[in-house]
Amino acid sequence: TLMAQTVTGPRPLVLCGPSGSGKSTLLKRLFAEFPDKFGFSVSHTTRRPREGEEHGVHYYFVERPVMEQAIANDEFIETAEFTGNMYGTSKEAVRDIQSQGRVCILDIEQKGVEQIKKTDLNPILIFNNPPTIDELERRLRKRNTETEETLRKRLDAAQVEIEYGLTPGNFHKIIHNRDIDVAYEEFRDFVVDELKKQEAMGVRFN
Ligand SMILES: Nc1ncnc2c1ncn2[C@@H]1O[C@H](COP(=O)(O)OP(=O)(O)OP(=O)(O)O)[C@@H](O)[C@H]1O
Ligand SMILES: Nc1nc2c(ncn2[C@@H]2O[C@H](COP(=O)(O)O)[C@@H](O)[C@H]2O)c(=O)[nH]1
User: Fold this and answer.
1) What is the pLDDT of residues 179-190, one digit of tens each?
2) Residue 64: active-site member
3) pTM, two decimal places
4) Which of 64, 95, 138, 143 is catalytic?
5) Distance between CA atoms of 49 and 54, rounded to whole angstroms?
6) Which of 65, 67, 111, 181 has its CA 20 to 30 A from that of 43?
7) Where is the Guanylate kinase-like domain positioned along the sequence (predicted)?
8) For residues 138 and 202, what is the distance between their CA atoms, to the nearest angstrom?
9) In whole angstroms, what is the distance from residue 62 CA to residue 94 CA?
10) CB of 94 within 8 A of CB of 41?
11) In a 3-state reduction of DSSP, which class is residue 143?
């Protein structure tokens, strides 16, 4: 409701899309263009860090028993098993960003989205759609972060996620991510427009 929204601040933004579709690339540009407006919800994961990834910045990298205990302690809004690893959004990660008056951005996969939809988080849902699975494979290979096995698992998951993502009603906005510059503009314009609408309804922003 309008009252609740006024009290809780801007709606979080969920960006979902197959691994390698370019979510992190879009977010990196958004954070660079608007350094004070948004904040990234730092997820927990049991996968190993990639080169350049920092604990507490890209993820909280934890061992599985630690994550399982935290889930048992009811510390998470949503959790999912994805290609053999656990991922999850902690309540604290979102609270952290919201307390700074920033728009909280979640980069999560499909099972997480389905759980978030059942909470009172009320996010704006965006699906980042790659041109083809072949192009997704090219992007993932070029990124050089996966083994043949994890690459295969990610591409298998992508089939299912694209079907869900393109099903009408599941997301508020679909970004067709072919050319990165075009995709970014579409993404940015949609997000900025959404924030303006909320501002017009009295939601306060940074
Ligand atoms: N529109 C694009 N065209 C070509 N290459 C792209 C495009 N967008 C991103 N890339 C490249 O594709 C690779 C995957 O992009 P990125 O890491 O942003 O994907 P992601 O959706 O965040 O993946 P993951 O879910 O695995 O973290 C990167 O090497 C990135 O530089
Ligand atoms: N349900 C959740 N999914 C998450 C979370 N954090 C990230 N993700 C998604 O996992 C895959 C793989 O990510 P990668 O960093 O290993 O490439 C990708 O689709 C992310 O969006 C989370 O907290 N919950």
Assistant:
1) 999 999 999 999
2) no
3) 0.96
4) 143
5) 7
6) 181
7) 10-192
8) 44
9) 18
10) yes
11) helix
- Whether residue 148 has pLDDT greater than 90: yes
For residue 47, how many C-alpha atoms fall within 13 Å in the half-sphere facing its CB?
Answer: 20
Pocket test for ligand 2, best of 27, 46, 82, 129 (most atoms within 8 A of CB): 82
SS3 41: coil
Handedness of CA 148, 149, 150, 155 (dihedral sign): positive
Which amino acid belongs to residue 5? Q
What are the two backbone dihedrals, phi and then psi, of residue 22, each rounded to the nearest 5 degrees? 110, 20
- Active site includes 95? no
CA angle in degrees (0–180, nearest 5) for 74-13-83: 60
The CA-to-CA distance between both ends of the chain, in Å, stands at 21
Task: List, as one string, the DSSP characters of 175-188.
Answer: EE-SSHHHHHHHHH
List the structure tokens of 44.
């927990």
HSE-CB at 67 with a 13 A cutoff on CA atoms is 20
DSSP 146-157: --HHHHHHHHHH
What stretches of 108-197 adopt beta strand conformation (E)? 124-129, 173-176
